TrEMBL record:
Keyword entries, A-Z: Metal-binding, Methyltransferase, Transferase, Zinc
GN (gene name): mmuM
Cofactor requirement: Zn(2+)
EC number: 2.1.1.10
InterPro entries named in the record: HCY_dom, HCY_dom_sf, Hcy_S-methyltransferase
Example of a GO biological process term: methylation
GO molecular function: methyltransferase activity
Positions annotated to bind Zn(2+): C216, C279, C280
Protein name listed in UniProt: Homocysteine S-methyltransferase
PROSITE patterns: HCY
Cited Pfam families: S-methyl_trans
Domain Hcy-binding as annotated: residue spans: 5-294
């Protein structure tokens, strides 16, 4: 009689989990050149060992969810850099394999917005001039390639626009992998200007969405947003802001002051967040402090 396989980890939205931090910062710490339109996906194509090392640094810091290096990856973007469709599909799968090998309980496959692939800061504006159908057509092949590698969840992240969220929810509806939906927001509005409550409401009846929230926004935006997300959707919230600095797409530099306080993780959990971490400019050392704060309360 064959023994039953050991049980896997419980569904990732049923208890509080620590996410990783900004992958780009960890990759730069490993010595990666992220210039050009592929950004972190460049390291995926050219230096997978350093991607693995960046993931491992977050696991050592206590991250329980590792996010793949596919945020800015697309078939179109890979093609512009001489990578054909079959090779690009393998790289999407490789992103999941590398994250899985880091040893965290869960892997979140990153599906960044259309604006991220443009490489011009469009993820902080939205309103690309494309229809929902056109955006769905763009995202669906990326979703299918990532889903084929069997991550635990798809992270629909840094979404600036409710219309793009609508397209992403359509593209992921039948992929067989649960998703979280995370907007980048300011003053309880999406970056495209829609009320955040209306944007969150898109996910309320979507059974494949396990959590809704915000990322790559200022830390001060998070508490109200996650409370609103939980109220509007009845689902757990996800929260992983950046350091509070502002990205200047024209100069390619971060400006302003870093104000990320790991102790805010306790406030976000109290407001309904169950998936908590950091985004740009939040490195493994801050993730370790989030883990300590959450474990000690």
């Amino acid at each position: 009689m064959n023994a039953s396989p050991p049980p896997g980890p419980p569904p990732l939205h049923e208890h509080t989990l620590v996410l990783d931090g900004g992958l780009s910062d960890a990759l730069r710490a490993e010595g990666c050149d992220l210039s050009g339109g592929l950004w972190t996906a460049r390291a995926l194509a050219e230096d997978p060992a350093r991607v693995a090392a960046a993931h491992a640094a977050h696991v050592r810091a206590g991250a329980e969810v590792i996010t793949t290096a596919s945020y800015q990856a697309s078939f179109e973007g890979f093609a512009r850099h001489g990578i054909g469709r079959a090779a690009a599909a393998r790289l999407f799968g490789e992103s999941v394999r590398l994250a899985r090998a880091a040893g965290a309980p869960y892997v979140a496959a990153s599906v960044g917005p259309y604006g991220a692939v443009l490489g011009d800061g469009g993820e902080y504006r939205g309103r690309y001039g494309l229809s929902v159908t056109e955006l769905e057509r763009f995202h669906r092949p990326r979703v299918e390639a990532l889903a084929a590698a069997a991550p635990d969840v798809l992270a629909l992240e840094t979404v600036p626009d409710a219309e793009e969220a609508r397209a992403l929810l359509r593209a992921t509806r039948d992929c067989g992998i649960p998703v979280w939906l995370s907007f980048t927001a300011e003053r309880e509005r999406t970056r495209a200007g829609q009320p955040l409550a209306e944007a969150f409401a898109l996910a309320a009846e979507a059974d494949h969405v396990i959590a809704v929230g915000v990322n790559c926004c200022a830390p001060g935006e998070v508490t109200a947003a996650v409370r609103l997300a939980a109220e509007v959707t009845g689902k757990p919230a996800v929260a992983y802001p950046n350091s509070g600095e502002q990205w200047d797409a024209e100069t390619g530099e971060w400006r302003g002051e870093a104000v990320f306080d790991p102790l805010l993780a306790l406030v976000w959990r109290g407001a309904g967040a169950r998936l908590i971490g950091g985004c740009c400019r939040v490195g493994p050392e801050l993730i370790a402090r989030i883990r300590t704060a959450l474990a000690g309360s």
